[in-house]
Design brief:
Strand order of the largest sheet: 3-2-1-7
Number of helices: 13
Structural class: alpha/beta
Distance between the termini: 39 Å
Order of helices and strands: EHEHEHEHEEHEHHHHHHHH
Length: about 350
Amino acid sequence: MSKQGTMSAAVYYPHTAPVGANVMRTALLLWDEIEFIVPWQGFRPQHERSDIQAAIDMIGRFHVPSDAQKRDAHARVEEFATGALPKAFFYQEKTSGEEGYMFAGKLMPETWLMLSELGLRGSEDGEQYRLEDAMGLTLMSIVADCCAGETKARVTDRTLAYQKLNGILLDTDDLTQADTERVALVPIVLSLVDATSLPLSSLIEMRRREASRGGRHLPRLRARLRDRLERQASQIAGLERAADAAELKRQLEIELEDDLGALRHELQMAKGEALLSRDVVVTAAVGALAAGGRIADVWGGTAAAVTGGLSLAAGLMGARLKYAKERRTILERHPMAYMLEIADALPAPLGKC
């Protein structure tokens, strides 16, 4: 199964809220919003970390699987569950230790009945069913795929657990690998602007500023970066050799570093051209003459100085407007423009970009 094009939203799995901060850091950098699969309307998971909860409150959305999505999931689960499965998927009653759970509302009652008949789930515990971890991970991967469809990315923080299931998951191996690779590329992007330890609070503040400014400028820049990472993640996911994947990551880092360098150079050139443009130079020259008393006026030197100051200010304002327009055009061409905007908006050391 493959997905085409860039996606502005993502679906998180397998839990109702992320385990750590990495998922929300990735979401704040790449997607307009991230959805969390919940069992019923009004269900709102609360995270113990205040910064993660703040990020969820800002860009998180809560998604209850629709009837159509549950029917789709049922068909996939049936095909998977009725095949030959390893022992690790069949539920074993526990005498000690932790058990896996999944909310009943994420699947159809018929699906749970089928799983019970096949020995793949345990008893009901409130609103949840007991499951072996391998089965729970698989079910939530299928549900997430049905909820994401062809328009949303998928993201997980149980990467190692899902890697163990590769070769077993039904028709989702490539997609799961692409999910993993996409997240693995984010540190490369952060390192290029010295932001590997960027706290969630800074990214949250950036998104608040973005929302308050209005328009589609920053979301468009984010989409360009996201699209580049999506393409690279898909290419890496299709490789069999680890050395080939490492080489593609190295090439991406070089490409993005060159893009950032070219972006800075173009912006510097545009700033210089704006300051030296004909209109600005002429306006500034007129202001300088007026300030020097070479333009006659009946009010004397004070008026000439004021006129000169206004002309100089107008010249600088013209240069600023010219540069702002050209800067926007330049930013739209570069995948790393969004990271440069983040670096410029945040305090040092990130602001040095």
